[in-house]
Amino acid sequence: MKKLLLLISCSLVLSFLIIWIFDQTVFLAPILLTGAFFVGLLGIVSLTKESPPFKGWFKSFLETFF
CA 48 to CA 54: how far, in whole Å? Predict the structure, then answer.
């Protein structure tokens, strides 16, 4: 499960970078992709850190907003 979430987070970051570089013509795309980038980055940070401030933070974030 942890590897799956890490893979999803990495794919969000990579999709942000690819679309940001190659397609900046759509107005809403950079805004949505920036949100996806930060959610993916928070997922990567929370899954790779085992310190108490990061442990379970991303899961509670997802439960709060989704």
Answer: 9
